[in-house]
TrEMBL record:
<dbReference type="Pfam" id="PF04790">
    <property type="entry name" value="Sarcoglycan_1"/>
</dbReference>
<keyword id="KW-1003">Cell membrane</keyword>
<keyword id="KW-0472">Membrane</keyword>
<feature type="transmembrane region" description="Helical">
    <location>
        <begin position="26"/>
        <end position="49"/>
    </location>
</feature>
<dbReference type="GO" id="GO:0005856">
    <property type="term" value="C:cytoskeleton"/>
</dbReference>
<keyword id="KW-0206">Cytoskeleton</keyword>
<keyword id="KW-0735">Signal-anchor</keyword>
<keyword id="KW-1015">Disulfide bond</keyword>
<dbReference type="GO" id="GO:0016012">
    <property type="term" value="C:sarcoglycan complex"/>
</dbReference>
<dbReference type="InterPro" id="IPR006875">
    <property type="entry name" value="Sarcoglycan"/>
</dbReference>
<keyword id="KW-0812">Transmembrane</keyword>
<dbReference type="GO" id="GO:0042383">
    <property type="term" value="C:sarcolemma"/>
</dbReference>
<keyword id="KW-1133">Transmembrane helix</keyword>
<dbReference type="GO" id="GO:0060047">
    <property type="term" value="P:heart contraction"/>
</dbReference>
<comment type="similarity">
    <text>Belongs to the sarcoglycan beta/delta/gamma/zeta family.</text>
</comment>
<dbReference type="InterPro" id="IPR039972">
    <property type="entry name" value="Sarcoglycan_gamma/delta/zeta"/>
</dbReference>
<keyword id="KW-0963">Cytoplasm</keyword>
Amino acid sequence: MYQTVWVVTTPSSMAYLGIYGWRKRCLYFMLIGLLCLLVVNFVLTLWLIKVMGFSVDGLGELKILSGGVKLSSQATFFGSLICSSIFSHIGRSVTFASQQNFTVKTRNDEGRISSGLYIDDTKITTQAAQFSVSDLRGRNLMTVDNDKTVIGVDTLRVSGNGGAFFDGSIQTPILENFPGKDLRFESPTRRLQMFGGEGVSLESRAGDVNLTSLSDFKIESQEGTIRFVASNVYLPALKTFQSHRGHISNHHKTSTIFQLCVCTDGKLF
């Protein structure tokens, strides 16, 4: 048995769905604010693209090429720069500037540092197994390694007022002074020795040659002779023999010519 129930509603009890009043106004304000925010973001994006120079080729002055990147202005690196080669634009130079120091390092196949160049505000340091300097024709000018230093130039000139100091020996075919300047060899506290396989030549083409010694000065020839080839040979400080005879003629008193005698020990007087 079924029963039917009828519900009767009146207009005063009907419910209406929707947003009205202050809620509707707040929703409109939110939509307008979001729209303005989207417009501002879009304008800022276009401005950044314009300022930064974004394009399909790269970012501003930085162009991405098939073999690397191309930079047409200055660049600042806050970290390390790792690259195989750096080239400048045609007709322009490359300048590297650093606030404290500039370091260039190379590594071998094992990843270890094999050589490096360090430049700071006080010194320049090079670390390598061999240091070489060559000219444009590829001729070696200077080579430095652990064993020796080779100078390949035609003339090595030392222009300092103090001269050159060597702790060891020097091997060279010729030592020549500047035109109009004196050439001097000095050993203040030790001996000065000169050796030549076929001879030692001291020559002055426009001046004197002075040999000064505090104590003895020895000239020795083991198998040959000692020759003084000159028009005049002077021995001004050589001692003369004083005669003890009572009668000496006036001729001998005024004479300035003496005989050169040799003692048994080789002394001249």
